[in-house]
Amino acid sequence: MAIAQNSLTTMQQRLEFARKIAEQAGQLTLKFFYNTESFAVEHKEDESPVTVADRETESFLRDQIADHFPNDAIFGEEFPNTEGTSGYRWFIDPIDGTKSFIHGIPLYSTLIGLEHDGQCAGGVIALPALNELVWAGRGLGTWHETKRRGPTRCRVSSCSHLADATFVVSEVLTFDKINRRDAYNRLEKSVRLTRSWGDGYGYALVATGRADIMVDPIMSEWDAAPLLVILEEAGGRFTDWNGNATIFGQEGVGTNGSLHDAVLSVLSG
Fold first, then answer.
1. Based on the number of CB atoms within 10 Å of its own CB, is 90 exposed (0-12), middle (13-18) or buried (19 or more)?
2. Which of 132, 206, 219, 134 lies closest to 168 in space, CA to CA?
3. What is the pLDDT of residue 7?
4. 175 domain residue, yes or no
5. DSSP per residue over the chain, as a string?
6. Total structural domains in the chain?
7. How confident is residue 4, by pLDDT bands cut at 50, 70 and 90?
8. Is 110 a member of any domain?
9. Could you give the percent of the chain with pLDDT greater than 70?
10. Which of 5-9, 109-113, 258-262 has the lowest mean pLDDT?
11. Does one domain contain both 138 and 201?
12. In this structure, is residue 198 part of a structural domain?
């Protein structure tokens, strides 16, 4: 998706920049990932783990954004929000899937979402330990890049029946936290295959057509921020459990689009 610098729109400039710093941040996480015994793991009030790798990576991303786009707002997981005046707001999750990260499992990601005037405009999922990058811009499509292959436009799967679908999820016990294990059980029984390939990686699988459904019972804005535009530009859908296309629903359903209404129906019982 090479575009001459002088023809880039303001949004495209930010998207190109987001891709660049997501890759750089991913490389920073690898310094810790390959030496997980070198740092301590703390737990926040919600019992989710956090490490120096999370904080250093978010600090790097915040510094880069502030240096290049000082009037943009920044919303991140580990530090207080930064207000802006440009109409652009960045959402940062430095390590999505910290539980995988601290156990040396390569299915974690760095997430960057970009909002303009309150609308999701761009998103990046960087998977540094897998050498993969998935990104999208509104009206620009969704793109997938690997170490061996340059940017290729990607699409969701064509699966149209739940009985043939692959369903991925982060952690089954999370459904218990909202007293909805029944919803998980119904969906698992409705599909062909269920795997716990979760967090941002699961949504990357849906966006690239390798899985059909991803469901999260609990999400934060920084988890969801890149996903709506990535899935929609790939031909899929991302909503809350009520079918609203939002990153602020505190929950998420990502599908190839064809299965979305059926998944929502199963979840609602």
1. buried
2. 206
3. 35
4. yes
5. ----GGG--HHHHHHHHHHHHHHHHHHHHHHHHTTGGGS-EEE-TTS-EEEHHHHHHHHHHHHHHHHH-TTSEEEESSS--B--SSSEEEEEEEEE-HHHHHTT-S--EEEEEEEETTEEEEEEEEEGGGTEEEEEETTTEEEEEESSS--EE--------GGG-EEEES-THHHHHTT-HHHHHHHHHHSSEEE---HHHHHHHHHTTS-SEEEESS--HHHHTTHHHHHHHTT-EEE-TTS---S-SSSEEEE-STTHHHHHHHHH-
6. 2
7. very low
8. yes
9. 91
10. 5-9
11. no
12. yes
Count Cβ atoms below 10 Å from residue 25 Cβ, excluding itself. 25
Domain that holds residue 34: 7-148
Are 88 and 73 in contact by the 8 Å Cβ rule? The answer is yes
Q: What is the pLDDT of residue 38?
A: 57
Lowest average pLDDT, out of 44-58, 83-97, 213-227, 235-249, goes to: 44-58
Residues 99 and 195 in one domain: no
Q: Note the maximum CA span of the chain.
A: 54
Q: Which two tokens stand for residue 84?
A: 């802006």
Q: Are 256 and 157 in contact (CB under 8 A)?
A: yes
Q: What pLDDT sits at residue 48?
A: 52
- 62 and 112 co-located in one domain: yes
Clarify whether residues 167 and 256 are in a common domain: yes
Residue 252 falls inside a structural domain:
yes
Under the banding of pLDDT at 50, 70 and 90, the label for residue 182 is: very high
Q: Write down the pTM of the prediction.
A: 0.91
142 with 21, same domain? yes
The CATH code of the domain that includes 73 is 3.30.540.10
Residue 232 and residue 122 share a domain: no
- In this predicted structure, the answer to whether residue 2 has a pLDDT above a threshold of 50 is no
Tell me the mean pLDDT in the region 118-128: 97
